[in-house]
């Protein structure tokens, strides 16, 4: 292909922001829904092993969220910087950014894998895993060994988003998810690997994704960005820009992990490990439900970055308002569906004899937490606008307010101080989500007005 001309994705990034958000988001929604379908199915198969296995996954989840957060953070940093370079017409800078981000992801993953595997058991004891420690360590060590795959593939996604190409991501994530869904029952039950089988299914899918990405970037080279040894990576300006977004974005997921650990501890305080199992199963449904919002937010980073790089600041109000509105509409529809079918959804996590007693609690959790969905949109879209303009610390501070100041505090106040137990904790999360969404929206509107006024 002619690498001197813009690809369809790059042309899309530079055009109408509403059209760009929709066209970039649709493939990402499909891809993330397929991947989340796997995560949901994975939880279903693990639930068949009993409540202890499901709780064990729940205790590993905060650490896994840190890995995913770091990977997504680096990916978001790559997306932001690459899209800004493209918007500014600096293609060589976009190439250098991509190569530097990949090399950095490999180096970081090696160190993290070693640390997590070495300290997995003490961490599980610290998190209060109790009689599920052995299961948690068995599952976690396999996941931690795949850190290099988690980071590399997410940086690859970030590069593709940065150049406005989300269809490739849809193809590879979709194929990997389907393969994973097929492999899980084989590894867990047919090969009798138990909880370890669920982890190995994820590793196999990541290997597939990484292989395809390497083929696209390094062998076929039909993308706007290529990974070549001939790229000059001595310029550190771009990698500093990636870290300026990536590290705060990674910390945002670290905050989510801290929140998850904190909620698990609160649930054990006011109830027992069954409450953790309910929260683990229900939270997977929530993560699945808000996938369209996450997909839209990744597109917002790229579209905002291209507008910022090209100094088209008049697009910012359109990008922000349209993405928030679109997210609220979609989330409200999903919330209604969740409330209507809470009992049916709960059954998929409690079909085994060992987990049947969890069904009423999971249904109650879903019927309550569906209120959470619409208020995610203002917060997540506002964070994406900050990331797209290079304001990683502002995005991080917004999430500190939402996760720690609002959600954790409200959960503790209602669940423990006021004595409403696990139901109080659920409502605390909802109230914190609402306050965080409102704060994020107002803050970004003020930021946009200042940009337009003084430029």
UniProtKB/TrEMBL annotation:
Segments passing through the bilayer: 21-41, 53-75, 96-119, 139-160, 172-191, 197-219, 242-271, 283-310, 322-342, 357-376, 396-418, 424-444
Pfam families xref list: MatE
Keyword NAD: no
Molecular function terms from GO: antiporter activity; xenobiotic transmembrane transporter activity
UniProt-recorded name of the protein: MATE family efflux transporter
UniProt cross-references to InterPro entries, sorted A to Z: MATE_fam, MdtK-like, Membrane_Transporter-Flippase
Subcellular location: Cell membrane
Native source organism of the sequence: Methanospirillum purgamenti
Keyword Cell cycle: no
């Amino acid at each position: 292909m002619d690498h001197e001309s813009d690809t369809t994705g790059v042309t899309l990034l530079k055009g109408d922001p509403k059209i760009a958000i929709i066209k970039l988001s649709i493939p990402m929604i499909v891809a993330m829904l397929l991947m989340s379908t796997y995560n949901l199915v994975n939880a279903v198969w693990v639930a068949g092993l009993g409540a202890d296995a499901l709780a064990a996954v729940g205790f590993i989840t905060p650490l896994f969220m840190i890995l995913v957060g770091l990977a997504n953070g680096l990916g978001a940093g790559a997306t932001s910087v690459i899209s800004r370079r493209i918007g500014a017409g600096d293609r060589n800078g976009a190439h250098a950014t991509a190569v530097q981000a990949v090399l950095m992801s490999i180096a970081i993953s090696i160190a993290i894998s070693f640390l997590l595997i070495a300290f997995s058991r003490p961490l599980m004891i610290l998190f209060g895993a109790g009689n599920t420690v052995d299961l948690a360590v068995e599952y976690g060590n396999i996941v931690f060994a795949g850190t290099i795959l988690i980071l590399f593939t997410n940086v690859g996604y970030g590069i593709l988003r940065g150049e406005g190409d989300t269809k490739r991501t849809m193809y590879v994530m979709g194929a990997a998810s389907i393969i994973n869904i097929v492999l899980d029952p084989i590894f867990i039950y047919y090969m009798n690997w138990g909880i370890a089988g669920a982890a190995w299914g994820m590793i196999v899918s990541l290997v597939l994704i990484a292989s395809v990405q390497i083929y696209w970037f390094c062998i076929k080279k039909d993308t706007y960005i290529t990974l070549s040894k001939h790229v000059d990576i001595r310029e550190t300006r771009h990698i500093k820009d990636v870290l300026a977004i990536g590290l705060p974005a990674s910390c945002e997921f670290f905050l989510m992990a801290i929140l998850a650990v904190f909620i698990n501890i609160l649930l054990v305080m006011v109830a027992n490990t069954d409450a953790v199992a309910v929260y683990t199963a229900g939270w997977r449904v929530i993560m699945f439900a808000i996938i369209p919002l996450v997909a839209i937010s990744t597109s917002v980073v790229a579209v905002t970055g291209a507008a910022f790089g090209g100094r088209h600041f008049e697009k910012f109000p359109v990008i922000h308002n349209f993405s928030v509105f679109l997210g609220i509409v979609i989330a409200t529809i999903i919330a209604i569906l969740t409330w209507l079918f809470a009992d049916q959804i709960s059954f998929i996590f409690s079909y085994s004899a060992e987990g049947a007693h969890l069904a009423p609690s999971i249904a109650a959790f879903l019927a309550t937490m569906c209120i959470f969905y619409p208020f995610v949109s203002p917060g997540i879209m506002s964070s994406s606008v900050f990331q797209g303009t290079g304001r990683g610390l502002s995005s991080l501070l917004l999430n500190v307010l939402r996760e720690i100041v609002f959600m954790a505090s409200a959960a503790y106040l209602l669940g423990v101080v006021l004595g409403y137990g696990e139901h109080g904790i659920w409502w605390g999360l909802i109230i914190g989500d609402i306050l965080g969404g409102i704060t994020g929206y107002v803050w970004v509107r003020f930021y946009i007005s200042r940009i337009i006024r003084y430029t």
